[in-house]
Specification:
alpha/beta, 7-stranded mixed beta sheet, Cobaltochelatase, CobN subunit, CobN/Mg_chltase, single chain
Amino acid sequence: MNILVITNNEASQAHLSAAYRRLDEAQRQQLKLTVVDPGGNETVDAPADLKTKLTANAFDMIIFDAHGVPKESVELIKKVLQGGTAHIVPVGGDIAEIRSLLRLGQLSANDLSHTGTISEEGLDRQDHRTDYDRYTKMTEYWRGGGTANMVGLLSLAGREYGGCDLLPAPTEPNFLQEICILEPATGTRFASLNDYRNSRGYSGERQTVALFFNGNGNLQDISECVGEIMNQIEEFADCLPIAFPSVMNISLDRLGQLLTEGGRSVDLIVNLLPFRLGIGPGGGGAATGKKSLNGMGSRDHAGGAVTWLEELGAPMLHPFLLSGTTEEEWRQSVRGVNPAQLMVQVVLPELDGAIETYPIAALRPEGEDPELGIALNKLALIPERVEKLVQRVKRWLELRSKSNREKKLALICYNYPPGEANVFGGSFLDTFESVARLLSRLREEGYETEEMTAEELRSRFVEGGLVNSGQWTSLDQTDGQMIRCTDADFAGKLAARAWGKEAVERWGQPPGEIMTEGENFLIPGIVNGRIFIGLQPSRGIHEDPEKSVHDRSLLPTHQYTAFYQWIREQWGADAVVHIGTHGTLEFQRGKEAGMSGDCVPDDFIGDLPHFYYYYVGNPSEAMIAKRRSHAVLVGYQAPPFTEAELYGEWANLDALLHEYREAQQLDPERCGDLLRKLREAGEALHFAAQTPEEMEEELYRMQRSLIPSGLHVLGEGYDHEAAAAYMRFVLRHERGTVRSLRGLLAEREGFIVEELSAGGHTDELHRLDQAAAQLVHEYLSTKALPASVSNEPPEWQAAVRQALEFGYRAYESSINNQELEGMLKALEGRYLRPKLAGDAIRSPEVMPSGYNLYAFDPRAVPSVTAVERGARIAENSIRQYFEQYGEYPGTTAVVLWGIETSRTQGETIGQILRYMGVRVRGEAGSFRTEYEIIPLSELGRPRLNVVVHMTGLFRDMFPNLLEDLNRIFRRVSELEEPDELNWFKVHTRKTEEQLLAGGYEPERARDLANARIFGPAEGQYGTNMTRLIETKQWSDESELGQAYADSQQYVYSLRERGQAEPELYRIRLMAVDVVSQIRSSHEWEVTDSDHYYEYFGGLSKSVAMVKGSPVEIHISDSTLEQPVTESAEHSIARGVRTRLINPKWIDALLQHPYHGAQQIAKRVEYVLGLAATTGKVEPWVFDQLHETYVADEERSRQMEENNRWAYHGLVETLLESHQRGYWEPDETQLEMLRQKYLDLEGDLEGQTDDKVLLS
């Protein structure tokens, strides 16, 4: 009998090899075994020889394990196997997908129900029933794994279906069928926790660590690994090994009984199982269970495991096993883990609140099986990673057992860029006040520390000169407050690091020149009882810009290394807390995920539990912090939102428009004069809108634009007024079955909001806004449906009630801040419930804050809604270009961010798909989203070309989408369509011809010709753009464009990952007609983040350099109910008008001492960055900035009092804008600006200096 086994599972291959070797020569003569590996998740196409291998021999039986096999290979295998007469036994993977192949004796797939059990009809036939029982037993052999089970599998198959009478009689499958306590070294199973404890001699006095692992060996033969981990943990704690029969359908009730028998619970979980706890690859829900641990209430399928874990209270660490990768492959990989591993071992466990995802075992080559022709590998522990795990388990247990008074904490804040202006920085955070409140609460909870006010903290750090590389404060002015750290063995420890020699080459012999004094490292920080409060060191970019600004793989300075080493070894912290978004530790050199000890973030955190107070609105960078620095993320919410409203001359313009509309009705003769005044007023305000209708639309949009009001303070929820406003803003948007209030009100009156918006009916829209606000006000007053709608149809009332109830939940969540409670729970070493990160208005479920952040399941991206909105954005952009130029844009360069994709669930993906004429078929599935080509007849235009520029964050978070897009690019290029209707295909063909002419191999040329995605090199995240702007280390705009191109020329195709391809990149840029980016965040206008000028600015400058002329830039605002696409000029102008020069926005920020001017000054710098990269910042912007912050004496005084260091930087930026030619101030403005600069500098230096400024 000839048996073929198709599997890519290393453990199964090894077990089959061992089993076949157990058979004697005569038995192997009767049964011939062939094992074929169909390729793993990294396989681009089905292996070229796969079909040949499947058909080379006449097999009598084929056993097919589809687990981890690429879809292309599965489809090929199914196609090949559907013919013939061989028995076919599907045993692993997505059985439902391959069940149709089943053919065993008289049994076929037709005899099974959709659940895989035998049908009633099959039960009535003995031959079918017999074959079904054998099939069930064969799958149990396979799932149980191990050599003995594989011998049983071969014996049953050979004896019953091949007449192999010499084979041994098959034993019963050794298959774990229910969760149990299993001692890995002996395989002994225990019925109760007490029996197990007695067998180990546990006294019950020590803490207990539970280990969750797969008790069946088909996927990973891990018993030896678990046993060794247990041996090491048992040196300081008791261990409870819990074996799971599978990763799916686990009873939490049974698990809870095992963990809590006798009234004592476990202290920590080490979960070695992939996927989410108890539900396997589905990933969307959680394990089942009727009751919670305390017997209260019931649990639904979606949140069971999380609720169960929260009640248990034990943190769940999730180290993992690299079952398809050798240790050497992992060590050499910058990526760290492949997309499939990232999904099942990192992303999905995070949805359960799992932390600390890094590998502790990998494959070890064990030679070959010459008879079967397969390589043999064995899963083996990675000693350095196991040591890391064990030490971190120990420190977590200590955190749980120590009293608060015993604990030493390191609170780390930021000072980027270094100097006096940016101390305690953080996105949307008043960090000084937040740290003050945290200290106060820690003292209340028994921590040994004294309270400090925000003012006292500012005085100690800023006035006291405790800063990184102070510009205005010398070391002798700090009164000896700087902590001095000496480590006689620092050089030796540095040399022992893999990157130590390179660090010495870059920064010189330790201690170096940055933040040192003699042999001492300087630590800017203070010790308050048993709490250290310090500033994360600078990366050395600003201190040594000429050498550092172009170094994208910059290693930490010696002082940076010494800082974290001091916290661990000399200060002796029990935990580290990083305060605010975000620091630089998580962006230091190392793997993208699946860290090793050579990765800087992993090295510096060491064995310390790490907590990170992180902004909920930044999910992509939050996940980098979580995965690369082993952080528990305690989310903090956005500041309150408010409407920008109209002010000053804008309010006057609005009044003039109302007067004009009144005159049209009552006094038409005045209209001509009023129209002239309107145009004059618009011109004076540099308003792009020309007609009254255009002015009304833009003023309406300005007035209702949402702006953050000030900064957030730790633990501070919204007050009633802010929460009511938040409820109104949440209810602006349609959310599937939850309707927007404005939409419902319009519907009642026979209107459609989209038509009112398109028609410019701003008066009607404004009236509907007011009516919606009144509904919210009345509902909050009575908690009942307002009487004003009591006479409306029941269906409409029900929809309004549903919306108001949804909004009210958002209202309550915004008030019910849990940040202090979450931080305290984390510091006690307890499990912190996971919560989605994202935009608070788009996704109100991110509130309340104070929980362990996670990002959307990447498999749910793109959603159908996101694809539809993205398609609308694409068509908006195409239409805008067509109206301007009379033709379609041949190529659109799209900026693809991880943060936008997380927030919107893939609107930019939808935009990219629409350009090519592709859509999603139904919702994103559990495993793979299905895409379909839109027929040309339906599309109504040619398929257009795209070039995608992604961030490193997108690359790390959505590897599945990279693969999807690259496969779509190939499909579109291979469509049999005329050139004039498939421009994408034309670009692919021409590129391939160019590459072949340049000497590329045909296969590689084809792959790169299809490639459209570019980004940073492996392990890199940003560009050098922001460094150049911040340090002023550029003289010509071409340097900026070149810096962007140098950073983004790395291609990501089906076969290439992060390979530099400058010529291909040049080809792609040369074709670009328009640059497009989506603005998806209510918190950030394009003037609020340096990443906007870094990406759409840098990209447009690079294109302009290659083409020799400027390129169109489209910004699509996705924060609105319906996305709007406009020019970069308009988008920048709105950001300036609604925020930077808006008194409401400014006043709210200046309510926060020091931080207000800090935030404002940064945004003025961002405007300069936009001017330099896009050429779309008009001179009036700088005029208005000067008028607002310099010419206005009261505002100038406020800025100086708030933060004179940051204000000095703002004035300097305005001078730089003039010096670089972006603004020509008149003599009065220039003299005022120069004098303000000199006055501020004199004050900062303690004396007035006669510096000569370049004009």
